[in-house]
Amino acid sequence: MNELLKSYLANETARQNEGLELIASENFASQEVRALCGSVLTNKYAEGFPGKRYYGGCQNIDDVEQLAINLLCDLFGAKYANVQPHSGSSANMITYYALLNPGDTILSLSLDEGGHLTHGSPVNFSAKYYQILHYHLGSDAHIDYDRLEELALEKHPQMILAGFSSYPFEIDFARISAIAKKIDAIFMVDMAHVAGLIAGGVHSSPIPYADVVTSTTHKTLRGPRGGIILTNNEEIIKKINKATFPGLQGGPLENIIGAKAQCFYEASLPAFKAYAEAVVQNTKVTAATFAQLGDIVSGTENHLFLLNTKESFNLTGLQVEKMLEEINVTVNKNMLPGDQERPSVTSGIRIGLAALTTRGLNQDGAKEVAMLIHQYLKGEITKEEAQKRVVLIAKDLKNIEEL
After folding, report:
1. Residue ranges of the domains in the chain?
2. Mean pLDDT on 155-175
3. For residue 270, is the peptide bond before it cis, meaning its omega torsion is within 30 degrees of 0?
4. Cα–Cα distance measured from residue 29 to residue 263, given in angstroms and rounded to the nearest whole number
5. Is 225 among the catalytic positions?
6. CATH entry 3.20.20.150 includes domain 270-402
7. Active site residue 358
8. Is residue 45 annotated as part of the catalytic site, yes or no?
9. How many whole angstroms separate alpha carbon 260 and alpha carbon 95?
């Protein structure tokens, strides 16, 4: 290996082992998943789908990809799946391309209230090719379903999209499905953030209600970086597959698809259910600890919550992100509902517990993490003291090589 690459890899391994990862969209994959990412499957070109390839020599590749499809369908109780999207964004692009026409209207959650870039950001492809309408949160910080229905009945979008980047509550998939049916709209769910919680049985599933569901595989699902698409509709999967290849992607990353298969297998085991339960409990405990200390936090029903840093510490989200990075605690600045700061600055941060729970964090550890962050940001302990406490917490957790 190139010596510089070797040193960079060593540095990143140390950072992950010695720090506290609280970015809600990150996790730690198992040794088996990582091994498959670097396996000989990366050597094979396999344009097309199992049994319908444009290259010879794909017999074993077909077995791997079909296994991934079967395991994924079994995991979520869906009839059809596509495991080729390179990312969650790719999965969303493929779905729009397959089911919508340029200029069609998508009704999605407002970005500054928890939506995702691919759900209609002005700087994203989604807003350049489609008309975007946003529904919003009510005064209780939950989705305003009544207003969502009013918008849908008034504007008649071709698609209603449920999903988020930083919404800390469960979504009523049945309610939105009923609204979509009233106007004959496609109901799409982007479950990227909660896929692992759904697989673990601690979050409701959109599969019985949505026409099509997309997801990443690397967040709470704890797999390799990649995307997936699920549906119970045979005509939709035909359109999805055609949009994937030859529509938008070339040769699939079969090494990553092999790793996805392992991820789906791991998520079907009893230990994963216990993990998903622990993620939700750790998240609730961490948020409650901040609240008990007098900080302003959102509620939570999943793996993440929002911390208002402006009101809690008189600091922007950007300032807090940089301060915490100095003590090897990793978070991301995040817009809050009604945020007056720019997206590059923000008034808060997003905190997620999926990654640290993978490393074995328990509820006592979750409390300690919240107390450490609070005391450091309040200036009650020095940076040096905070760094020492981060080291002690990290030492009690599993190294990523052991996962």
Report:
1. 31-267, 270-402
2. 97
3. no
4. 8
5. yes
6. no
7. no
8. yes
9. 19
